[in-house]
Structures are given as C-alpha cells and as structure tokens.
Amino acid sequence: MKSTKRNYRATFIFDNRGKDDSIDHIINGVKQDIASLDGEVGVVENLGRKEFARVTDKKFPGATYVQIAFAAPAATPAALRERLRLNPSVYRTFVQSV
CB–CB of 72/38 below 8 Å? Predict the structure, then answer.
C-alpha cells in the first residue's frame, strides 16, 4: 500500500558556535535526515542571522534561521523532531503542515 505524503514547511534555528561546521554543512545533514525518514526535500531558504526577541543566554543573542519545504508521510514530523533533538547544531525546530 502506498502511503500518502503531506506537504510541510520546517523552520530551523541553527547553533554553530564553537564548531567547524558551516551552515551549509548543517543544512545538508538535516536534508539527509528528512530523506532518511521517507521525505522529499523541496525548497531550502536560508533566512540569515536574526537576533532573538527574548534572549535567554547573553552569549547567544541570535542565530541563523532556515526554512525547508518537504513532502513526507504524516509520522515524519514527529520522528524528525525526535531525531534533531539529539543534534547539538539544531537549536530549535518548528514543523507546520501547509
């Protein structure tokens, strides 16, 4: 039985402080995670560095925001959040259905 795919847009906040990884390298890793969960990556948009409205850590006042559009089965967003929770380069993840 073929599973139906839904369209999603995920917004990520990346934290590469003190790491040699570039933002492009982190984006490629996230795209691989989406693909491994049976997702098809579409448009990737780097929104650039933005300052946080509410700073919780004075040493971390802002970060790079990236939006990735993808199509995947309904269970993929929860599995993606769980997988990226363990990735120290991904500070926050927000996935919405479009």
Answer: yes
Amino acid residing at 84: L
6-97: CATH superfamily: Ribosomal protein S6/Translation elongation factor EF1B (3.30.70.60)
pTM, entire model: 0.89
Assign 17 to helix, strand or coil.
Answer: coil
What is residue 31's three-state secondary structure? helix
Tokens found for residue 61: 């006042």
- Render pLDDT for 1-39 as a digit per residue (tens, 0 to 9): 567 899 999 999 999 888 777 899 999 999 999 999 999
